[in-house]
Write a structure and sequence with these properties.
Layout (H helix, E strand, L loop, with lengths): L5 H20 L3 H19 L5 H13 L17 H33 L1
Length: 116
C-alpha cells in the first residue's frame, strides 16, 4: 500500500516551481531549468492514479543530489541590481530550499513507513 499522499508530491512540485522562479530571478537559468524539470516530473507523478514508488524515489534522490557538498547550489548567491531586493531574494531562496528539504524528508519518512 502506498503511504505517500499525492498532496505531498503536489507540494514538492510547487516548491520546486518556486525554487525555479527564484533561480531565474537571480540570474541562474541553468539551475532554474533543472528545478523546473524536477517540478514537471513531480506533477507527472502526482497526476497518475497509482504512481510508481521507484519513480518517486529516483526523483527525490536526484533532487537531494543537487545539494551535496560539492554542488555550487550550496553556496549560491542570487544576483539582483538592487541590494535590498537581492537580500530579500536570497532569504526567500534559502527559506524555499529549507522547505523543499523538509518536504523531501517527509516524503522519505512516508515511504519508510510503508516498508516497516
Amino acid at each position: 500500500m502506498q503511504k505517500v499522499e499525492k498532496w505531498r508530491i503536489q507540494e514538492m512540485g510547487q516548491v520546486l516551481t518556486r525554487l525555479s522562479q527564484l533561480l531565474r530571478q537571480g540570474e541562474n537559468a541553468e539551475w532554474a531549468n533543472v528545478f523546473a524539470h524536477f517540478a514537471q516530473e513531480a506533477q507527472n507523478i502526482a497526476r497518475q492514479k497509482k504512481f510508481s514508488l521507484e519513480v518517486l524515489k529516483r526523483l527525490v534522490h536526484n533532487i537531494i543530489n543537487c545539494f551535496d557538498s560539492g554542488s555550487s547550489l550550496r553556496n549560491m548567491v542570487l544576483i539582483q541590481k538592487n541590494g535590498k531586493q537581492m537580500e530579500v531574494l536570497n532569504q526567500e531562496f534559502r527559506d524555499t530550499i529549507k522547505h523543499l528539504l523538509e518536504t523531501l524528508a517527509a516524503i522519505e519518512e512516508k515511504w519508510a513507513e510503508s516498508v516497516s
